[in-house]
Design a protein that fits this description.
The complex is a heterodimer of chains A (488) and B (124).
Chain A (H helix, E strand, L loop, with lengths): L54 H13 L21 H7 L2 H4 L11 H18 L3 E3 L5 H18 L7 E5 L5 H8 L3 E5 L9 H7 L4 E7 L11 H10 L3 E6 L18 E4 L1 H4 L14 E3 L11 E5 L2 E5 L15 H37 L4 E2 L9 E4 L1 H5 L4 H10 L6 E2 L8 E4 L7 H20 L1 H5 L12 H6 L10
Parallel strand pairs in A: 2-3, 2-4, 4-5, 5-6
Antiparallel strand pairs in A: 1-7, 6-7, 8-9, 10-11, 11-13, 12-13
Chain B lengths: L6 E2 L4 E6 L2 E6 L1 H7 L2 E5 L6 E2 L4 E7 L3 E5 L4 E6 L1 H5 L2 H5 L8 E5 L11 H8 L1
Antiparallel strand pairs in B: 1-2, 2-3, 3-9, 4-6, 5-8, 6-7, 8-9
Classes of the chains: A alpha/beta (488), B alpha+beta (124).
């Protein structure tokens, strides 16, 4: 990888490359404690390479670095399955109010009644949205929500002395976290096929569901962006076999105010607050993956659960709780953002979020279907999975198309996922984008399809205008360079 | 692309028989679909694998996929070169990019596999 220096008039040298021996960014105050000798002077090494730079150099370096960010705040970001939508900044401000930001999880409940009330109200709202009234906000991310949900399923079967149920059935289109969470929860994973419409193969599920079935994990809408039309039959098959139905709520952005998972026969689900409910997603920052269950399963929820009592709001442990799954109460500031977002939008507003997300995706699908193959030829929900199979035959891969989009200031869609779709390009425009932005994306995708024949080298070499151009991903993975070295 | 002396599975693995030893790898179709292979996780010599059961994982720049053994039996050898330099799977999938060798315990297993023409027809 070559990082160009001074490209566009901006100094892009790495911090280590700016180092000058003896230069420093700080002045330590005079010591006001007696000097102590080190027990072992060899602890101080002078062979450790650390940058020696001025304060201004540090500021310039990190300011430039921050401007290289390709983010939802700077660019259209249709990364399928990730719901990269606009998260209103006011919710950041609200969650930073001193009464919410400056409290401590070990404070006595009586001193943080407002905060616990917020958690209780958010639990109630998520219960209403999903139709599953038992809610714990403890899980810190989607995968932990899945894990908690599967522990609940196991605890439910164990409590009924039905412990031979050791199998989690997972569709072949599922996100990789589903089988991973099931394995973490001590369950054996069995895969159910998708049919040619992208739905769960109901007959295959019927063959697989039996007295060993602990839980069936279904992402709805599916990772193909499709609503599962056989959902009622599916939940019945699983229930008739004695299993529970777990819904991966990663795609809840398509269902708000439109359909309740509980009404479909789902027993357990999670929601990624950091995708659907106003927390920036994908920055590696804190997430939140509350788990929602039927009334019958509420006694197994992970602790704590906020409860209203005669003496006020308390953080309680459900009767047969699967226990703690992290240190404290979950991600409180993320819960605060979600609560503000839900209250600001209200029932009608939330429904219009999902309606607009669905319309945007279908608009893109309808405008591109003559140029790109569809994973499934039917209306989609909040995302459309295109296939670049036609372009691949003409010599250009999905990867090349994704990279070329960067030249037009558009973040690449999710690529090569789900794996059951050849040359998949998964596009999730979200409700936040204007028709003008969608039209721009459509025009660019159509132009790229023209370039497949007229100028294929433009695609093979893309991106052309970014600080780093086409990366050698294979070498980066096979021989990763993880530390700075003067020799490289 | 698909040598006639090999047998093929629908999971895109090939088998080359030599006495009762089955040499196993992935097909050209598999390595092209995967893209550049960056990591191969292989089992230990001496362990047993069942026919069509998972024996390892292959990771490319696109995705991680399971490897399924077209032949069941005792694993007699694994290709450490494929583990150390996974690019051989892309460069020479039927030669230096082989993955494991299995001692065939039942020749009837071979009847479950496809010849080159039949396999190629499944890719159309």
């Amino acid at each position: 990888m070559t990082i160009s220096i001074n490209a566009g008039g901006v100094d892009r040298r790495l911090l280590m490359d700016r180092s000058v021996t003896g230069r420093k960014a700080f002045t330590l105050p005079a010591s006001d404690v007696p000097t102590q000798n080190l027990p072992d002077s060899s602890l101080l090494r002078d062979d450790v390479e650390l940058p020696e730079v001025s304060q201004l150099e540090v500021i310039r370096y990190f300011s430039v670095l921050s401007q290289l960010n390709f983010s939802i705040d700077t660019n259209f970001y249709p990364l399928g399955s990730c719901t990269m939508k606009y998260n209103p900044k006011i919710n950041d401000e609200l969650s930073n109010l001193p009464g919410l930001a400056n409290i401590h999880p070990l404070q006595p409940d009586v001193t943080v009644q407002g905060a616990i009330r917020l958690l209780k109200n958010l639990q109630d709202d998520l219960g209403e949205i999903t139709g599953l009234s038992g809610v714990s906000l403890a899980p810190l991310a989607g995968a932990q929500g899945e894990y908690a949900g599967l522990l609940i399923a196991r605890a439910y079967h164990d409590a009924r002395s039905d412990s031979a149920r050791t199998v989690a059935i997972v569709p072949d289109s599922a996100h990789g976290t589903n089988p991973a969470s099931a394995a973490m929860a001590g369950l054996e994973v069995v895969t159910v096929r998708s049919d040619d419409q992208g739905n769960v193969d109901v007959e295959n599920l019927r063959e697989l569901a039996n007295s060993n079935t602990a839980v069936f994990m279904l992402t709805i809408p599916s990772t193909l962006g499709l609503f599962e039309p056989n959902i009622l039959e599916i939940t019945k098959i699983v229930h008739d076999a004695g299993g529970l139905v777990y819904a991966d709520g990663a795609n809840l952005n398509a269902l708000l105010g439109v359909v309740k998972l509980g009404d479909l026969g789902v027993d357990i689900c999670h929601s990624n607050l950091h995708k659907t409910f106003s927390t920036p997603h994908g920055g590696g920052g804190p997430g939140s993956g509350p788990v929602m269950v039927t009334n019958e399963l509420a006694k197994f929820l992970p602790k704590p659960v906020a409860v209203k009592t005669d003496v006020g709001y308390v953080l309680a442990t459900p009767e047969m709780s699967v226990g703690s799954i992290n240190g404290f109460h979950g991600s409180f500031s993320i819960a605060a953002r979600a609560y503000a977002y839900i209250k600001a939008l209200g029932q009608e507003g939330l429904r219009s979020v999902s309606e607009n997300a669905i319309i945007s995706a279908n608009y893109i699908q309808a405008k591109l279907r003559d140029k790109y193959d569809l994973a499934a030829d039917r209306y989609c929900m909040h995302e459309t999975v295109l296939s670049a199979a036609r372009q691949k035959k003409r010599g250009v891969a999905g990867l090349d198309i994704a990279k070329r989009l960067l030249d037009f200031g558009i973040h690449a869609p999710t690529m090569y996922f789900p794996m059951i779709v050849d040359e998949a390009l998964m596009v999730e425009p979200t409700e936040s984008e204007s028709k003008e932005t969608l039209d721009h994306f459509i025009a660019v995708m159509r132009q790229i399809d023209d370039e497949v024949d007229s100028a294929p080298e433009l695609l093979h070499d893309a991106p052309h205008d970014l600080p780093v151009t086409r990366l050698d991903e294979a070498t980066a993975a096979r021989k990763p360079v993880l530390r700075w070295s003067a020799e490289v | 692309m698909y040598p006639d002396d090999l047998k093929y599975s629908k999971e895109h693995e090939w088998v080359r028989m030599s006495g009762d030893i089955a040499e196993i790898g992935v097909t050209v179709f598999a390595q092209e679909s995967l893209g550049d292979v960056v990591f191969v996780d292989l089992p230990e010599v001496g362990t047993n694998v069942e026919q069509f059961a998972k024996f390892g994982e292959i990771e490319s720049v696109k995705a991680v996929s399971d490897l399924f053994s077209p032949i069941g039996g005792k694993i007699t050898e694994v290709n450490s070169a494929a583990a150390d330099t996974p690019e051989v799977v892309n460069e020479d999938p039927y030669g230096s990019g082989w993955l494991i060798k299995v001692e065939l315990n039942d020749t009837a297993q071979l009847d479950e596999l496809m010849d080159a023409a039949t396999y190629q027809a499944t890719l159309e």
